[in-house]
Amino acid sequence: MANMANSEACASALELFNSITTQGEHVRALKARNASKDEIDSAVKMLLSLKMSYKAAMGEDYKADCPPGNPAPGINHGPEATEAEEDFVDPWTVQTSSAKGIDYDKLIVRFGSSKIDKELINRIERATGQRPHHFLRRGIFFSHRDMNQVLDAYENKKPFYLYTGRGPSSEAMHVGHLIPFIFTKWLQDVFNVPLVIQMTDDEKYLWKDLTLDQAYGYAVENAKDIIACGFDINKTFIFSDLDYMGMSPGFYKNVVKIQKHVTFNQVKGIFGFTDSDSIGKISFPAIQAAPSFSNSFPQIFGDRTDIQCLIPCAIDQDPYFRMTRDVAPKIGYPKPALLHSTFFPALQGAQTKMSASDPNSSIFLTDTAKQIKTKVNKHAFSGGRDTIEEHRQFGGNCDVDVSFMYLTFFLEDDDKLEQIRKDYSSGAMLTGELKKTLIEVLQPLIAEHQARRKEVTDEIVKEFMTPRKLSFDFQ
Amino acid sequence: MANMANSEACASALELFNSITTQGEHVRALKARNASKDEIDSAVKMLLSLKMSYKAAMGEDYKADCPPGNPAPGINHGPEATEAEEDFVDPWTVQTSSAKGIDYDKLIVRFGSSKIDKELINRIERATGQRPHHFLRRGIFFSHRDMNQVLDAYENKKPFYLYTGRGPSSEAMHVGHLIPFIFTKWLQDVFNVPLVIQMTDDEKYLWKDLTLDQAYGYAVENAKDIIACGFDINKTFIFSDLDYMGMSPGFYKNVVKIQKHVTFNQVKGIFGFTDSDSIGKISFPAIQAAPSFSNSFPQIFGDRTDIQCLIPCAIDQDPYFRMTRDVAPKIGYPKPALLHSTFFPALQGAQTKMSASDPNSSIFLTDTAKQIKTKVNKHAFSGGRDTIEEHRQFGGNCDVDVSFMYLTFFLEDDDKLEQIRKDYSSGAMLTGELKKTLIEVLQPLIAEHQARRKEVTDEIVKEFMTPRKLSFDFQ
């Protein structure tokens, strides 16, 4: 009987294991075909609940490569490994079950990039003679590829250029969307180099239920917010793919070159495309890759193909550039270097990236001072205790507190930030006080952005978006 | 023992059957990945020899859907069905085992197009007031889609435009390549409509071992031969994809629209692409499709999307336009109409299309009078008998005689052609005399082409290839 019961338990555990595998595939498929957030969320919930049942039944976590009764030797079964395995990062979906957000150290290992360490930050400081941006000091830009090579070139007076971009899926941009642009502007200033900014309106047309005109309209509106970050009009070219493809003698040629050297198998592996995906989606990665090569911009770089590109972007965009770096030597171009940022957390917590379609998930660039106050007070996930007494006694948890996380992004004063961390952790500072500090940082920041954006006329946008020479001093 | 032998025979027949299936898949795979002609030919030979063994063993032809001992009821097992089944037609490969060439009636059924019948030819004559071109009279343009709709529009004074193209895989063009252009020029003349000609240099770059510059160079060289066909410079726009994509505000937008509405599954089904194909190949069909829609040419048609397109082309290009016609209603555009031609046979026989890489497989546009004479005399497959005596007694076979086939393309005089057919079939005309007639037709035709091509200066090519208004009278 004991044996019988045991074998029954095994059968049921195996069934559960198989259900998890199936449900996991289902989630991946939903993500790959860009299903609605609701649909994905509910499938993920089901998956997590199956995993909980499994853990309850088996006394250990579900492991994809280890069916019940078949423990894989040497694999770490600890809770940390499990947590990291549940992180999912690709250009369309970022998902983690940890309130601290994605485990970035594990992501570096998984993606094969390098950590931005103290040594590299010091080298940037030496090369530019400028104090490193607080995004570097605080690990918000935390990972890189070949940044040392860019610095070698820079120190030898060899040229490089910056490339970043945005997928204009709606008119609404939130503060999180500004992170790469704030940092890119700093890079442009301290290195004094040209910059190209790609608006992937074609991508948004392909992935979303938008018309071409809508996607292009969003590109132009978003360009205004980007310009409001303060980019130098003489050193910056912003382009919509839909527009620039039909204006550039170099862009399409590089797109075709890249497309010749990437197979469906490769994009399937990198991006999770399936046979049911449109050929537009399948070939799009080449369009995001092409600006990594300088002769995609003959008006700026002529026919030079040897100018190194440096791409500051959120880490979820890395798959595109892993592909690009794989192709580059095959077509005789240098590999682009990268600087990766962490994700900006949603007000509700670091488990997900913010959504431009949920107005309460973040602070939008159009929010009034009052809206900012209300949103922070009402929606910002708190690491505080349930009662003031408990909070005073045990202190708050900065690692999961969204207001504190936002301050690491926007409060420039290191000493003040450290003081807040100490006071909140010790319980000396209450959640209401922490939120008040954030509100007082965000309100002027957004108001100033809005004032600068108002100054951005249609003529200015047009000039930024006109293919033209940029002023820089290359050898 | 009898039973035993029987079951042994069955096993061996089944093994043979499976070998044929495997070899057939191998041939398809070679074709799909554009293997060398030699490689494909040798695999096809092996396939045919396996099929012969099978027939010898089983007393009946190999049928893909009918393994030995499992006859599928209701399927026609006659030799005709078998012959047609061995025809293979896609944009990269045309293969048949019949010396008469492809069975075009079966192709019409398989592709779902319509036969160009006497009634349609009469209607074209009434609409244009011109005697139908001998390519129509002789069934060289033999199939169509929606030609009646084009004529309805034309009779109601509604506009349409012509679109044809060429894949510039080398500088060398042969007489067979001129067929669609000769016919398109006639259509342009009798209907007085604008024409766009696509040079798919991007396709050739993607499929062949060429650089972008080589592919573009071939496009320009081939354009000269096309212009030498006599197109009206005021009504004709010739474009290289590599060039025009970066010059047109409308082309890429239509490409993306099409790419959004076609899945990998669909192009896999239509073109036989596999997961190992480049994403360039996979997305290319949208680029051949886009010129079917008038707003791909804003310089000619403005933003009008309602102008019907008529595409004269060889039938092997039909898969592209089946896909295009499938997409058109989804993106709010009219379906293009088509006129399909048969294939121009190689000198060695109608089993294959000619190859630009084999100088003896056809008459090239650069051949001298002497080369033409030698090639026809030496290489043109003859339907004559082994000896003069036999020929006089039994007559020659025009159905397989390549010289006679070439005359149906290039000898305009119907009466003279009919007389030759009678005389050769009866044995009154010998092979040498038939070949002499062909040589006398081809020599001046090629010489005149060469003279006209000499007149085509770089400036003229440049003007044909410059996006510009065309002169036409649309309502």
Automatic annotation (TrEMBL), chains A, B:
Cited InterPro entries: aa-tRNA-synth_I_CS, aa-tRNA-synth_Ic, Rossmann-like_a/b/a_fold, Trp-tRNA-ligase, uS15_NS1_RNA-bd_sf, WHEP-TRS_dom
Catalytic class of the enzyme: ligase
GO molecular function: ATP binding; protein domain specific binding; protein homodimerization activity; protein kinase binding; protein-macromolecule adaptor activity; tryptophan-tRNA ligase activity
Keywords: Aminoacyl-tRNA synthetase, Angiogenesis, ATP-binding, Ligase, Nucleotide-binding, Phosphoprotein, Protein biosynthesis
GO biological process: angiogenesis; positive regulation of gene expression; positive regulation of protein-containing complex assembly; regulation of angiogenesis; tryptophanyl-tRNA aminoacylation
SMART domains on file: WHEP-TRS
SUPFAM superfamilies recorded: Nucleotidylyl transferase, S15/NS1 RNA-binding domain
E.C. no: 6.1.1.2
Gene Ontology CC terms, in alphabetical order: cytosol; nucleus; protein-containing complex
N-terminal signal peptide: none
Stretches assigned to the WHEP-TRS domain: 12-68
Superkingdom to which the source organism belongs: Eukaryota
Catalytic activity annotation: tRNA(Trp) + L-tryptophan + ATP = L-tryptophyl-tRNA(Trp) + AMP + diphosphate + H(+)
Assigned protein family: Belongs to the class-I aminoacyl-tRNA synthetase family.
PANTHER family in UniProt: TRYPTOPHAN--TRNA LIGASE, CYTOPLASMIC, TRYPTOPHANYL-TRNA SYNTHETASE
Protein name in the entry: Tryptophan--tRNA ligase, cytoplasmic
Organism of derivation: Aotus nancymaae (Ma's night monkey)
Gene name, Swiss-Prot/TrEMBL: WARS1
